[in-house]
Amino acid sequence: MREKYFKKEIRLSGSGGQGLITAGIILARAAVLDKMKVTQTQSYGPESRGGASRADVIISNENFYFPEAIHFDIFLALTQEACDKYVENLKDNGILIADNTFVKNIAYTEATIFELPFTNIATEKLGSALPTNILSLAFLVRKTKVVTENSLKEAVKNSVKARYVDLNMKALKLGFKLADEYKEEE
Amino acid sequence: MAKNKIKETSSKKQEMVLMQGNEAIALGALAAGVDFFAGYPITPSTEIAEILSEELPKKGGKFIQMEDEIASISAIIGASLAGAKAMTATSGPGFSLMQEGIGFAKMAEVPCVVVNVMRGGPSTGLPTSPSQSDIMQARWGNHGDTPAIVLYPNSVLESYELTIRAFNLAEKYRTCVVLLSDEVLGHMREAVVLPDLEKVKIINRIKPTIPPEWYKHYKNNPKYISPLASYGEGYRFHVTGLAHDERGFPTNRADEIETLMERLKNKILHHIDDLVQIESYMMEDATRAIFAAGISSRAAKEAVNILRKAGRRVGMLRPLTIWPFPDDAVRKYLFDMKTIIVAELNQGQLSRELKRVMGGVWNYSKQKKRKIVELQKNNGEIITPEEIVNLFREVR
Q1: Is B305–A46 a contact, with Cβ atoms under 8 angstroms apart?
Q2: Which residues, including other chains, have CB under 8 Å from residue B207's CB and lie 6 or more apart?
Q3: Rounded to the nearest 10 degrees, how much is the dihedral formed by the CA atoms of B108, B113, B114, B118?
Q4: Are B81 and B231 in contact (CB under 8 A)?
Q5: Number of helices (H) and strands (E), helices first, in chain A?
Q6: C-alpha distances in angstroms, B48 versus B70, B98, B106, B196?
Q7: Cβ pair B112, B77 in contact under 8 A
C-alpha cells in the first residue's frame, strides 16, 4: 500500500551512452500508465555524449510544479563519476543503487545502499552490456515500488524497437530476480 | 491552402501520454492548422522542426530547411501572403537574425508565428542550457516602434495551448506573434491529455468580400485590422517594408504615415483585454508575492506551497502574455504587496518592467515603501524553490 501523499524524486545517472535518458523516459511512461503525475528532465549537453549524464523523474499522486530532482529519494549510479557528483543530494532515508562494476567507492551517506555489478551481469547473462539500463531499472522498481511492474513492462514494450523487446524483457525478468535474491548486509 | 486539415484524424479520444515540450509545440501548430514551416535547426528548438518535417508533408503542407534564419523568416512571410499558416522555430542566435524579418512582418502586417526556445546568450552562448534573456529582445528586437505579441507557457500542456493561441492571435491581429519557451521547458516531458481537436478554437484571417478593384489591404477600420487577401485569389496588392498608404505603396505624407503607425499601435493596445492572460496563485490573502514566468514560475509555485505550509501569506503572479505587458493586472495584484520577488533567468528584464508599472518602490496609497527583490540566475541552471524560499526568509 502506498502512503496517502506520495512523491518520489528519482535520479538516474551514469555516463553518456548507457541509456539512462531512455530509462528515465521508460520510468516516466510507466508512471503515466499508473495515472500518476510525472515530469522527466535530463542533462542535455556535451555531457550526454560521454561524461556524467543524468535523467530525473519525479512521480507523485498530487500536483507538483518544480520539474528537476533536488533531493533524491532514489538514486541510480552506474559510474564512479556520477556517484561522486550527485550522492550528496541523496536523502538520508533514500535509496542508492550502484553498479559496482564501475562504482568502487561510495562517499558517506545515511541512505540504504544496494550494490550489484549490473554491467557485468548484463554482459554475462544477457550477452551484451546494452540492457544494463533496463536491468538496473527493473531492480530499482522491484526494490522501491515506485511504479507498478506491469506498467514498467508495458512502458518498455512501447519504448524500445521491436527487435530489442525480447532482450529487454529478459533484462526486466533478470532485474526482478536479482532484487529478490539480493541479501541486505546489516 | 489554410484549411484545417488535421480534423480528419480527430475522431479518436485523447489519452494521457508522456510528451515533450517541443513536441507539444509541434502538435499545437498542427492542431492550429499550420501548413508551412521554414527553418534552420538549432538546439534547443530542433525537435519542433524535426517533428514538423515528418508530419507536415503527410497533411499536404510544406517543410523547408532553409540556408539560415533570415531566409527562414522571409520564407514564412512569403508563404503567409500566399495564404498559408506559417511558422518557424529557433533559439537566441537565430532569433537575433530573424529580427529584420519580424519587423517586416509587423510593418507589412503578415500573420506568422516565431517560436524562440531560449538558451543562454549572448552570441552562441549556452546551446544546451535554459535562459530567459530574450524577453526584451522579443519586444524590442526589431528596429522601429511597434508593439509586439509575445506568449510564454510554463508546462507541456500550455506549450500546446499557447501555440494554438499564437496562431490564432497572428491571424486575428495580422502580425508576427512570438512564442517563447526555454531549454528546460522544451525538453521536459510531462503527462498530458491533449484537448479534443473538435473543441480547439481556431481563428482564421478575415478575407476580403469586396470586388478586387475596391480592395485596399491596409484600410483603417474600427478594429484597426483590415481583411487580408491571399496572392493568387485575384486581388492585387503591394507589400513593402517602407511606410505605406492604404494600398501598400510607399508614402512620405505625414498624415498617411501617422495613420499607419497609430493603427499598428492601436490594433494591439486597444485589444489588450483580449491579449493579456495571467495566472494568479494564492494571491487572495497574500501580503508578499513572487512574480515569474516560464520555467522560473514552476519554482515560484513550489516555493509558494512551501511558504504557505509554514504559514506565510505568499502568492504568485505569472504572465502568460509577456507582451503587451499586463500592466493593469500587475498593478491590481501586486501594488499593495510588502515584498515582491522577481525570479528570472536573466539580468532583470521582467523586474525592470515591474518597476516601471509600480512606479518604483514607493507605495503612495499606503504611504509605505515596498521591497522589490530581484532573484536572477545566469549560469545555465534554473532557479530552485529553495532559493526563493531562502530569499523570502532573508528579506521578509
Answers
A1: no
A2: B227, B228, B229, B230, B233
A3: 140
A4: yes
A5: 6, 6
A6: 18, 17, 24, 21
A7: yes
Distance CA B56, CA B139 (A): 29
| CB spacing of B128 vs A41 below 8 angstroms | no
Point out the residue among B17, B44, B189 whose CB comes nearest to the CB of A39: B189
- Supply φ then ψ for residue B178, to 5 degrees: -105, 130
Is the pLDDT higher at A178 or at A3?
A: A178
The shortest C-alpha distance from B385 to chain A (Å) reads 7
Q: What are the b/e assignments for A35-69, b being 16+ CB within 10 Å?
A: ebbbbbbbbbbeebeeebbbbbbbbbeeebbbbbb
Residue with cell 542566435: B93
Tell me if A40 and B18 make a contact (CB, 8 A cut-off). yes
**Which chain B residues touch A36 with a CB distance below 8 Å?**
191
Rounded Cα gap, residues B293 and B274, in angstroms: 19
- Output the tens digit of pLDDT for each of chain B's 396 residues: 343 444 444 445 678 999 999 999 999 999 999 999 999 999 999 999 999 999 999 999 999 999 999 999 999 999 999 999 999 999 999 999 999 999 999 999 999 999 999 999 999 999 999 999 999 999 999 999 899 999 999 999 999 999 999 999 999 999 999 999 999 999 999 999 999 999 999 999 999 999 999 999 999 988 999 999 999 999 999 999 999 999 999 999 999 999 999 999 999 999 999 999 999 999 999 999 999 999 999 999 999 999 999 999 999 999 999 999 999 999 999 999 999 999 999 999 999 999 999 998 888 888 899 999 999 999 999 999 999 999 999 997
User: How does the average pLDDT of chain A come out, rounded?
Assistant: 92
Q: Which CATH architecture has domain A7-181?
A: 3-Layer(aba) Sandwich (3.40)
Enter the CATH code of domain B9-199.
3.40.50.970
Distances (CA, A) of A29 to A173, B125, B192: 19, 33, 11
* CATH class for the region spanning B279-395: alpha beta
Beta-strand runs (E) in B282-366:
288-291, 314-319, 321-323, 339-344, 362-363
Going from N- to C-terminal start, the domains of chain B cover: 9-199, 279-395
Residue with cell 509555485: B301
CA distance A96 to A113: 5
CA distance B396 to B394: 6
Pick the residue from chain A with its C-alpha nearest to B187.
A41
Is A53 in the B-facing interface, judged by CB distances under 8 Å?
A: no
pTM for this predicted structure: 0.94
Q: What order do you get walking across the sheet with B314-319 strand by strand?
A: B278-281, B314-319, B288-291, B339-344, B371-376
Determine what percent of chain A is predicted with pLDDT higher than 90. 87
CA angle centred on A96, ends A93 and A102, rounded to 5°: 160
Q: In the block, which residue shows the cell 511504479? A: A147
